[in-house]
Amino acid sequence: MGDTRLARVVLETRDVSKCYYLDGVEVNALRSVDLEIRQGEMVAIMGPSGSGKSTLMHIVGLLDRPSSGEVILEGQDVSSLAPNELASLRNRHIGFVFQAFNLLSRTSALANVELPLVYGGVGGSERSRRAREALERVGLANRLGHFPSQLSGGQQQRVAIARALVNDPSIVLADEPTGNLDSRSGIEVMAVLQELNEQGITVVLVTHDDRVARHAERAVHMFDGRVSEDGPVADRIMAADEMALLPPEGATG
Amino acid sequence: MNLPESFRIALRALAANKARSLLTMLGVIIGVAAVILLVGIGTGVQDEVTGSLEGLGSNLLFVVPGQYEGGMGGGGAPPGRRFTLDDAETIARRVEGASAVVPVLQAGATIKAGNRSMRVVAAAGNEQGTEVFTSDLAGGRHYRRGEVQAASRVVALGDRVARELFPNQDPLGKQVTLNGQRFTVIGYYQSLGGGLGGDQDSQVYIPITTAQRLFNLNYVSTIVVKAADADEIEVVRRDIRRALLPSFGDEFTVFSQEQTLGILSDLLGTLTYMLAGIAGISLLVGGIGIMNIMLVSVSERTREIGIRKAVGARTYDILSQFVIEAVALSVLGGVFGIVLGWGGAELIAQTTPVPTNVTPWAVAMSFLFAFAVGVFFGVYPAWKASQLDPIVALRYE
């Protein structure tokens, strides 16, 4: 890891604001947000609901465009690109992990992981090789043909992480990745994310949970659409240590 | 994303909802089958009618009273005067190129033999009738010139009449009554087979003079003229006009075989189009069924669309996925419909007298129409799907 401040900036928001109308009422979800995410970082974006963290995540994840300001991805201003261009950029640069897993049902783990490659135009044996590799990285090499309904919550989330990884993205964006999981599965998922970060993958964690956020190296606190605090996490939790403290599996039920 | 990939995704989605896919397809299946079947019947009847007329030979002219302007009846004035046997005589005498002139009259009659009886059509002509109408005797003979002149009460029976009245017996020489008058059976014909020709099997054939007495008529309905040489048919037509002009003026019409064929063909063709149109409407309804189910499918799979968009699906990818789904439904339905319609047409042809003819043209048209229905009714739901905002779609429960 080392000093990430010297690393290349992967994504940057400059003076980004977002306002939209909800039932005719103007909502300023983001007000002049400046944020830099560097290669190899693990950043938590924190804040209570209504703080603008979801909106920021949508903009960082290229699912949405800012009302004003610039979003620079790998040196390119992407703030005014058309939806289809954003889709292509998402495909190549962003990997999503959602709270609700969001896997395609009635579709095998392997096919789910292949999905971004399908839209990225990767075909044939190359596609299935890379999807297998990604599933191996999250420890699911023996679950390739399973459907989401045949997997536990933690396993489903790991399939989702494999899907996020498979296109070798600039950023893995995890939105409350442990929100739907029991504590053991949650810790396992956090361990996978930390491990991937160790291997050099940039991880952005969006959460309202302070404990989850402390798994990151740096925490960005949002409040009322502004960044209220941005600094390193003081007492970082390592999921691997937590795992060691857990009672042996089976005892938790 | 490439097209085979879209196909795989679409087919997988259809397979996931088998019952629903099948029911949706049923609309198209019925529509396409109806088009194939009805057009098959229309074409079959058309072929049969024109075929049986063509069988008469291309050197026949039909002379009827009244004026017809070439087109399909109705427009002409009602005949002021009908033809008589004398008019047929006149044509026979004055038209050199005519090898046979047959005055024709048809009327319904009741035929009885012992305690058996049936309604038949009595078709009357003269001894030259065998030259203009196809008929094969199964036994006996036709009536002769002398019998026509003497208005003899002799009758030849169609195949069905012979079987009904004289089952397992030789009808030759037997006595029958037509409308109460006694006739002697002199011959009976071979069956002309099923289809519309079946009608001729239910006819009886008597001399025209006998028919006029029997029905108390003094006219003939049509005079059929056979030209000795098919190439001379226009000359014969002109000569007939000349022969009849003094007594009829313009109040008669000479149809050639071709004209008759053309009129019938036009009429039956129009009928076929009408049938196709009616069946087409059911295909359209099937298309609306597809649109309906695709709209349901899109809203059911909002989250799936959100996921696909999040991982990089472009508008076009989603659009093509859903259009292909709709087209796959309609095309699959089309194929099943063709099989069903074709099979049904074959079945009808073999089990009923109605002839059918499924042409490649009808198959291709209904298939293309089914395809077009899929595209047309699939585009709107697919477009709706492709326009979904990924953020909203992902949040959708």
Task: Describe what you observe in this structure.
The complex is a heterodimer of chains A (253) and B (397). Chain A is of the alpha/beta class and 253 residues long. Helices cover 33% and strands 27% of the residues of chain A. Chain A contains eight helices and ten strands. Chain A has helices at 53-60, 83-93, 109-119, 124-137, 153-165, 183-198, 210-213, 239-245, and strands at residues 9-22, 25-38, 42-46, 68-73, 76-77, 94-97, 171-175, 202-207, 218-223, 226-232. In chain A, helix 3 (109-119) crosses helix 4 (124-137) and helix 5 runs parallel beside helix 6. Chain A is globular. The mean pLDDT of chain A is 90. Chain B has 397 residues and is an alpha+beta fold. Chain B is 56% helix and 17% strand. Chain B has a six-stranded mixed barrel. In chain B, helix 2 packs antiparallel against helix 9, helix 2 packs across helix 11 (315-351) and helix 11 (315-351) runs antiparallel to helix 12 (360-386). The longest helix of chain B is centred in the last third of the chain and has 44 residues, at 257-300. Chain A binds chain B through residues 58, 61, 63-64, 83-84, 87-88, 90-92, 96, 98, 102-104, 106-107, 115-116, 118-121, 123, 163, 167, and chain B through 1-2, 5, 12, 16, 303-304, 306-317, 390-391, 394.
